[in-house]
């Protein structure tokens, strides 16, 4: 025992005595004590403490809801959550998705597109239900040797369905506020552990921590994280099929978000092909794994889906004003994280409204941030003054292309370089560092070069058996069609605030052209 | 000047000084007076040790006496200050009860020590 640092605790007599004179209100005093402590922390750094409290509020489950959930859905009609999954559905981490807009700032251009990520999650659940029901109704597994009935018991089928729906339900649980708006910031902030898809990383992390008990109660503590994990090569049998339903070149996630976003934005495209493709889903078995394939012929539907997707990217997901808003938002979050030492996991676990309130408080005292926040809340008054293609010969663009996919260089490509270019353009245009908020630089998305969708498998009959070949081989013309749309997406864009005078606007344009070369 | 000792170390040095002075005088003026008190069964080589113990015995007895008397004085003359310390300790114990955090056993002198001892029913070492 260290006699100089001895510690004492109240004795049992003291406890009984205090409990008696406080009439059992000790717990209440404890709560008050905790509150006082929290208020002290809040006073010390309100932004950091609030973000921690916001994040913590989503971690603990109260587990009182265990009834089945039925919800009306504007896209698919009705969505239901089975009783076995209701505790997972009612977990605060899942419910947080109800406060995150699926399309981030698309509402600036499409005011009705304010649907939540939870509605998308429910939509994917519904599509999983439909797809598996179709598969088990047909009761056929295809292979190179021919076709055979599915040899699963009724209880196995039910278990498979629940696992697939649970995986669908949690596939987006790691999304940061405003959907993908922060991906290019939070994913690359830690240069030593970059995540091109931070939402997937955090989804798996929450499954292994806060949601562990919920999924363990379903009897699949490790199965769902493995299904949603980045490496699906270890999966066997139907788990491989479920993984492909949730995340693969032509998955149900894409089908739902495309249909839902198109419907809610009013662009209305791509519905019929989803229904048709769901009807053509078939399991293809090879080497003990069951792959997701689509029955030939389905070129019209695949082409419709993929071209609709590209149109949605051009007209909605990468609409210039939405991109400008996302850049403003990223700059505000970057500044807040830097000034208040906020942790990325805490930022991830907030909602749209919570992070906006934090940004509003963090902006106090900084004119630049106040202006950016005002711009974000007042319809993002920025216009594109210059844009240049990703395949441009400009040395700066080439250099950026050279580093973007290199390990550990993501932070430089997606976080540091855009900020540095904004300052350079503002300086060159004579605005100065204080006015650099009037210039925004948006770089292309990191996966814009890869076109994975054409790797989806098409089931073709051959030599008495079946083969599953990629879309690019069975329907080569589709790749050419969708590539036409893609050229519109591969762009660096420079925005200027509309409040700039004509001369200043011209100066910004000239500075941007000097930096990136002419279009 | 306070009528009681505030630190154990002061009690110790006072007793040590007076006790050893007394022993010194005794040993000086009555050098052989202890010889008749040496038990017959004690080996001859332990006689010096016996004398050393006998030399410090008055200091030890004085220390114990002073310490106990000082306790009495504190209870009598520093009752108000002792009460304040007890009140402070009780307050800290209640805080500890509410926060579930242990508190350090810090002693700043004899009054603190008496205050802690007098409240022994209400606390325990961790």
Q: Any overview of this molecule?
A:
- The complex is a heterodimer of chains A (519) and B (126).
- Chain A has 519 residues and is of the alpha+beta class.
- In chain A, 53% of the residues lie in helices and 13% in strands.
- Chain A has 24 helices and 12 strands.
- Chain A has helices spanning 12-21, 26-44, 46-56, 86-89, 92-95, 117-138, 154-170, 183-186, 198-208, 212-217, 223-228, 237-246, 252-265, 271-279, 299-317, 320-340, 344-348, 352-362, 367-377, 395-404, 410-428, 471-474, 476-486, 502-516, and strands at residues 7-10, 69-73, 77-81, 140-143, 146-149, 281-286, 289-295, 382-389, 439-442, 457-462, 465-470, 491-497.
- In chain A, the strands form 3 sheets. A 6-stranded mixed β-sheet of chain A has the order 5-4-6-7-10-11.
- In chain A, helix 6 (117-138) packs across helix 13 (252-265), helix 7 packs parallel to helix 12 (237-246) and helix 15 packs parallel to helix 23 (476-486).
- The mean pLDDT of chain A is 89.
- Chain B is 66% helix and 4% strand.
- Chain B has helices spanning 8-29, 47-77, 79-99, 110-118; strands at 103-104, 123-125.
- By secondary structure, chain B is mainly α.
- In chain B, helix 1 crosses helix 2.
- The longest helix of chain B is centred in the middle third of the chain and has 31 residues, at 47-77.
- The chains are: A alpha+beta (519), B mainly alpha (126).
- Strand 1 of chain A pairs antiparallel with strand 1 of chain B.
Features:
heterodimer; A: 519 residues; alpha+beta; 6-stranded mixed β-sheet; 3-stranded antiparallel β-sheet; 12 strands; B: 126 residues; mainly alpha; 4 helices; 66% helix
Summarize the structure.
With 519 residues, chain A is α+β, with helices and mostly antiparallel strands. Chain A is built from 24 helices and 12 strands. In chain A, helix 14 (271-279) runs antiparallel to helix 15 (299-317), helix 15 runs parallel beside helix 23 and helix 16 (320-340) runs antiparallel to helix 19 (367-377).
